[in-house]
Amino acid sequence: MNTSIFLAINNWAGRWGWLDGLMVFCAEYLMYVMILVVLVYAIRNYKKYRDMAIVSIGSALVARFGVATFIRHFYYSSRPYWILTNVHLLLARETESSFPSGHAIFMFALATGVYRYNKKAGWWFYASACLVGFARIFAGVHWPYDIVAGAVLGVLTALVCGWLFRKFKHVVGL
Fold first, then answer.
1. Phi and psi at residue 33, in whole multiples of 5°?
2. Which of 4, 74, 88, 140 has its CA 20 to 30 A from that of 81?
3. Cis bond leading into 100, ω under 30°?
4. Which residues of 119-136 are buried (b: 16+ CB within 10 A; e: fewer)?
5. How distant, in Å, are the alpha carbons of 4, 6, 7, 132 from that of 1?
């Protein structure tokens, strides 16, 4: 099922240049735009969105560089282009494990952090996270289960980080 879903999505790659370009942008650069949006929220209304910026960006970093790296240290999953011969690869080859998706875990942690403080913006962030995940499959660098696992782990990491932040923010004087 994982392979068939991957092929159904990835087979759209290479058909239209504009779609490939859009998916490459989403797969590689959309997350930087979303970080910038969080920072703009915090800069425009520091008192209201300071905690949102700390929790969302902090949990996204913990998810990507803590949780995903830890899992990848103990579990290796080959990327689709190392297993299948008919992958339409739009991004550079990577050698690290594909499980879980670092982009998905980052984006879903970021989205969950934003959603906890601003529901309306949070839905847009979740939509962006889904788009990044879809684009990573489209571009040929992740299996669908890498994205789903990244989404679940990203949400859980943000919930734990948010809880820890609320419990201990007075200790650090915030």
1. -65, -40
2. 74
3. yes
4. eebbeebbebbbbbbbbb
5. 5, 8, 10, 21
CB 52 within 8 A of CB 116: yes
Residue 137 lies in domain: 2-168
Flag whether 160 is in a domain: yes
pTM surpassing 0.90? yes
Q: How many domains does the chain have?
A: 1
The tens digit of pLDDT for each residue in 61-100 reads 999 999 999 999 999 998 998 888 889 888 888 888 889 9
Does residue 8 fall inside a structural domain? Answer: yes
Q: Is residue 99 part of a domain?
A: yes
Does 173 map to a domain? no
